[in-house]
């Protein structure tokens, strides 16, 4: 107030309102602001990386000599060693069967993909969906259906890890 002397107390103190959550800050609301160039490049790299992994999965042969589907060890076709946990303890690791699952799904053998590692099947389908999503974000500069990319990534990785561990415990116990 311009008419007030310096140091005088205002008869009408400002009203303080509590902070309210805005609907726009929710994780799944479409983003209105554009993402930066670095994030767009990362989305393109992610999309092409997932496409490469799924392409390699299609190239692998997830079947034994007699044509029966494998349940694990398809990754050895890439020159990788057998699973250390399986070799040392005779028990599968949390990701055992994941490569086989991807390869079986790439060969349209959904049932055997689920039997090899159902979390791998879910992950491959999720990645398949992230390819166009990432390319859209890279080209348009906006995250489709996601407001906060970091929160989405944290949530997705957390869910996948929990599912992997739950499946692993199930395999070990039963």
Automatic annotation (TrEMBL):
Judging by the UniProt lineage, the source's domain of life is Bacteria
Q: By what name is this protein known?
A: DUF2752 domain-containing protein
The record's listing under InterPro entries reads: DUF2752
**Keywords, in A-Z order:** Membrane, Transmembrane, Transmembrane helix
Taxonomy of the source species = Bacteria, Pseudomonadati, Planctomycetota, Planctomycetia, Gemmatales
Q: Which residues cross the membrane?
A: 41-60, 118-139, 151-170
Which Pfam family, giving just one, matches this sequence?
A: DUF2752
UniProt organism field? Limnoglobus roseus
């Amino acid at each position: 107030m311009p008419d007030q002397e310096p140091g005088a107390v205002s008869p009408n103190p400002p009203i303080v309102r509590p902070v309210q959550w805005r609907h726009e800050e929710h994780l799944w609301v479409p983003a209105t602001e554009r993402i930066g160039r670095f994030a767009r490049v990362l989305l393109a790299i992610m999309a092409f990386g997932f496409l490469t992994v799924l392409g390699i999965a299609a190239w692998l042969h997830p079947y034994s000599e007699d044509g029966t589907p494998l349940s694990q060890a398809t990754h050895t076709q890439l020159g990788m060693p057998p699973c250390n946990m399986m070799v040392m303890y005779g028990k599968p690791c949390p990701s055992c069967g994941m490569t086989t699952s991807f390869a079986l799904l790439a060969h349209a053998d959904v049932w055997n993909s689920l039997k090899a590692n159902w979390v791998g099947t879910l992950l491959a389908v999720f990645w398949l969906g992230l390819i166009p999503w990432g390319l859209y974000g890279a080209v348009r500069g906006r995250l489709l259906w996601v407001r906060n990319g970091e929160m989405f990534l944290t949530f997705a990785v957390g869910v996948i890890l929990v599912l992997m561990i739950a499946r692993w415990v199930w395999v070990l116990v039963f």
